[in-house]
Design a protein that fits this description.
The complex is a heterodimer of chains A (408) and B (403).
Chain A (H helix, E strand, L loop, with lengths): L1 H15 L9 E3 L20 E3 L4 E16 L2 E21 L2 E10 L4 E14 L2 E9 L21 H6 L5 E12 L3 E10 L35 E10 L3 E11 L4 E2 L2 E2 L5 E12 L6 E11 L12 E18 L2 E16 L3 E2 L6 E2 L2 E14 L2 E13 L7 E13 L1
Chain B lengths: L6 H17 L24 H15 L12 E2 L4 H4 L12 E5 L15 E2 L2 E2 L13 E5 L7 H5 L3 H7 L15 E3 L18 E3 L10 H13 L22 H12 L12 H12 L10 E2 L12 E2 L7 E3 L17 E3 L28 H6 L6 H8 L3 H13 L1
Helix pairs in contact in B: 2-7, 6-7, 8-11
Classes of the chains: A mainly beta (408), B alpha+beta (403).
Chain lengths: 408, 403
């Protein structure tokens, strides 16, 4: 692992060290614009740099920001954050065999993750085999999460605090696409290692799928020997947009060990719908995702941990100015807003029959400026109303965020 | 001389200035709720060093969540302190504690069967506890934590002076202390009054708990299934196991509970509230819900020799057959309950999910209903309340909500 990381970092360093490599040898890998891109293509639909005729292409992105947030009048003051630095390495091994890896450093070096490292074999456009560390295609954000693509400093709450984006696992699967003039149809089917019982035994005090990300062993062994199935179908129309339906499910608990029964099998099932479109004429981009989570929590466990969850987000992005600005040709100024909602515990109390709350509503107006399509400078104002499990008056959190994110 | 500033610099400067102006606008940030609308926060007058301990206790109490990895259960009621005491206020029935035992005061006969407290939940793969068929039981809704340090610092002599066990004054009210054994680890209060090796209990629904240390370590152990050096026995198998919280954490939490501020009354200048207060006294409510108490000397200067307004006498009173659950603790009889402090009552909805769950088990859904359920020694006050006009009753309720 360490050697691999060193190789990637060294490769990247040398690719950018102009004193040692003739920059004219570096060239941008042209994007394939002949076909309609979908969310599932996001992993390859990134800017890469290639050195001469080497079959290896490099890329990455960085996100940094400043924020000042206050909750019920109490603030932790001015915060400067290095959210993430991500490096990509892609390689065409043979005509229809390619490899891509994505390594992410989050919050400085607090977390270092391999988010994606897969080999793809194209047997037919309708039948591709993928194996390695894959990003489970639940919803759209998990696959299409690169910072520079978004007008918002924070990732969506539903995608990261209910669904576990970025959620990667080791496994294998198939995917494919079928193109017609205006339509493209796609599917993805994967079997991977999956969740563990941390999703209902964690210090968040709520059913929390991202808690399984703490288990680094999942890249080496399955927690319970039962595979997690993830499947998605999506359709995109050139004029209308893209609609995706996805499912992810499997047994999450350790129900037996050494042949001894520990518990009955308990499942987690997630359903998601995602869509994106651009309104003709005014060019308003709308991008959203909604998901439902069902977890088989033992009846004798606490209601603190929800049996059902639901939530999602929708982003509206309106280009308001598109012209040469400050010397940047084709710069774009956007106005945007994100609306978010998550209910971590959908249900009623056994004791009173009253509603269980544990939810959050969030509104994030934003202004972003893109000097190029690959770089974004964004200013957000966030306001959250978060209620505890009892539905007591919400904690109000609000503040300002200013950040930059760019591919390199 | 004319200076030509490029237009792009002007636009950039205006944009940056606009953003900075926007960010400097405090009005777009949520304000601090008024101090009298919150139950949490420290008592005034703590030193910076004490503030640090308070914050450590605050984190342990409000942020620490236990999991099977950190010792939760295997049988438990709640996963954290905050689960039962949101905002340090009264709790919700979903974390109601069930205590089981017997009707007489000869001591709990079911300790070997997991008594006195039922752990009604269990971590995955385990089964929760069941109430033995022959046991009686009672349900306790979690109480508010605020002002506990003041109650803890009231001298025993003050409590005893309020008692009238044989109703010598003939007012129908005969409060008495619950005499309990203090655990071996207890720091006995200065000038403590002892009877037959027993001390005055003052915490808990039946005043069966001697001190905040006992309250804290018992709650860790019985509510969450967490052992400490003070309470080292696992509730699951009764075996002594390694402590799952440190002395430091227990001491920090005790200090936090001890130094939580007293609830701040609201709307005290309003005429209806003042009228309600007078009606409260006239109806005899204040005979048990004593308005004023004074602390003795405390190692925490902010708690020393302070007069405060808890509306409790910390004594046991017979509340009649309607509130007799057939279960007891210490020397209390089954219909006897400690007078619950009324301070913070008006803020209870904010910690109970928007509605009241009052009396010991949350059965009363309004203040009026709670009064109506007063029997025994509280019957006369109940009757007096019922005889008030609707407007007077409303004023009395307004007064209680102002506490």
């Amino acid at each position: 692992m360490k050697k691999y990381l060193l190789f990637v970092i060294a490769s990247f360093f040398f690719s950018h060290a102009g004193a040692q490599i003739d920059p004219s040898l570096l060239r941008r890998v042209p994007k394939d614009t002949s076909r309609l891109p979908m969310n599932m293509d996001a992993v390859y639909n990134r800017p890469f740099l290639q050195m001469g005729k080497l079959p290896v292409a490099l890329g990455g992105y960085v996100e940094a920001n400043y924020q000042y947030l206050s909750e019920d009048g109490k603030s932790e003051g001015h915060q400067f954050q290095m959210r993430r630095l991500t490096l990509f390495v892609a390689s065409t091994i043979y005509k229809r065999i390619k490899f891509l890896s994505e390594i992410e450093f989050e919050d400085g070096t607090k977390e270092i993750n391999i988010e994606f490292a897969s080999v793809d074999f194209e047997l037919d456009p309708l039948l591709n085999l993928r194996g390695g560390v894959i990003m489970n295609p639940i919803g759209a954000f998990n696959q299409n999460h690169d910072g520079p693509k978004w007008e918002f400093v924070d990732r969506p709450i539903s995608a990261t605090q209910m669904l576990p984006a970025t959620w990667s696992n080791v496994g294998f699967g198939l995917y494919g696409k079928k193109y017609t003039d205006n339509w493209v149809y796609a599917y993805e089917l994967y079997l991977t290692n999956g969740f563990d019982d941390k999703i209902i035994t964690n210090s968040e005090n709520k059913t929390f799928l991202p808690a399984s990300k703490e288990n680094k062993d999942r890249f080496e062994e399955s927690f319970n020997g039962s595979p997690l199935f993830t499947g998605k179908v999506a359709v995109r129309n050139r004029k209308i947009g893209e609609l995706g339906l996805s499912y992810m499910g499997g047994v999450y608990n350790k129900y037996q060990e050494d042949g001894l029964t520990l518990d009955k099998k308990r499942r987690v099932d997630v359903f998601a719908v995602d869509f994106n479109t651009t309104l003709p004429g005014i060019k308003t981009s709308i991008n959203g995702e909604w998901a439902w989570v069902h977890v088989n929590v033992p009846d004798t466990y606490t209601e603190q941990f929800g049996r059902k969850q639901q939530g999602g987000f929708v982003d509206f992005v309106q280009p308001v100015l598109k012209k040469s600005m400050l010397g940047f040709e084709n710069a774009v100024l956007n106005a945007a807003v994100r609306l978010e909602y998550v209910d971590w515990n959908k249900g009623t109390f056994k004791s009173t029959g009253g509603n269980i709350a544990d939810d959050v509503i969030s509104v994030v107006p934003a202004v972003s400026w893109r000097p190029t399509s690959q770089t974004v400078i964004r200013f957000n104002y966030r306001y959250n109303w978060q209620r505890d499990i009892l539905g007591n008056p919400p904690a109000k959190l609000a503040g300002y965020q200013f950040g930059i994110s760019t591919y390199f | 001389m004319k200076i030509n500033i490029p237009k792009k610099w002007i636009i950039t400067a205006i944009t940056v200035a606009t953003i900075i102006s926007f960010m400097a606008c405090e009005k777009l940030l949520p304000g601090t709720p008024p101090d009298d609308s919150l139950l949490d926060g420290p008592v005034e007058g703590l030193t910076p060093e004490q503030h640090q301990i308070f914050l450590r206790g605050d984190v342990a109490f409000n942020d620490d969540v236990f999991t099977p990895t950190t010792g939760l259960g295997p049988m438990f009621v709640a996963t954290s302190c905050k689960s039962c005491h949101a905002g340090d206020g009264k709790g919700h029935p979903f974390t109601t504690l069930t205590r089981f035992g017997q009707k007489d005061s000869t001591g709990n006969k079911f300790l070997h069967q997991g008594g006195p407290q039922l752990q009604n939940r269990a971590i995955p793969g385990f089964q929760p506890e069941q109430i033995p068929a022959e046991a009686t039981f009672s349900s306790f809704t979690p109480p508010a934590n605020t002002g506990l340090g003041f109650l803890d610092a009231v001298p025993d002599a003050t409590i005893l002076a309020l008692a009238d066990e044989n109703d010598v004054n003939g007012d129908g009210i005969s409060g008495r202390p619950n005499w309990v054994y203090a655990p071996a680890y207890s720091n006995i209060r200065p000038n403590a009054i002892v009877r037959n090796g027993k001390y005055i209990g003052r915490l808990g629904k039946k005043a069966a708990t001697y001190s905040l240390v006992q309250q804290t370590v018992t709650a860790y152990n019985q509510d969450i299934g967490i052992t400490s050096t003070y309470e080292p026995y696992d509730t699951y198998n009764g075996l002594e196991i390694d402590p799952e919280v440190t002395y430091q954490t227990v001491n920090d939490v005790v200090f936090y509970l001890q130094t939580l501020k007293a609830p701040i009354p609201r709307n005290q200048d309003r005429e209806d509230v003042q009228a309600g207060k007078q009606l409260f006294i006239n109806a005899g409510c204040g005979k048990c819900h004593t308005p004023n108490l004074t602390t003795g000397s405390s190692s925490i200067a902010a708690l020393s020799n302070k007069t405060f307004h808890p509306y409790t006498d910390l004594l046991l009173h017979d509340m009649g057959s309607g509130l007799d659950d057939g279960y007891t603790e210490g020397s209390a009889t089954t219909p006897e309950w400690r007078t619950p402090p009324l301070w913070g009552l008006g803020l209870s909805k904010k910690s109970q999910g928007g509605q009241y769950f009052l009396l010991h088990d949350g059965r009363a859904k309004s203040i009026e209903e709670a009064i109506q359920l007063h029997g025994g020694e509280g019957q006369q006050s109940n009757t007096n309340f019922q005889q008030l006009s609707p407007a007077e009753r409303n004023n009395l309720i307004k007064f209680l909500e102002s506490l």
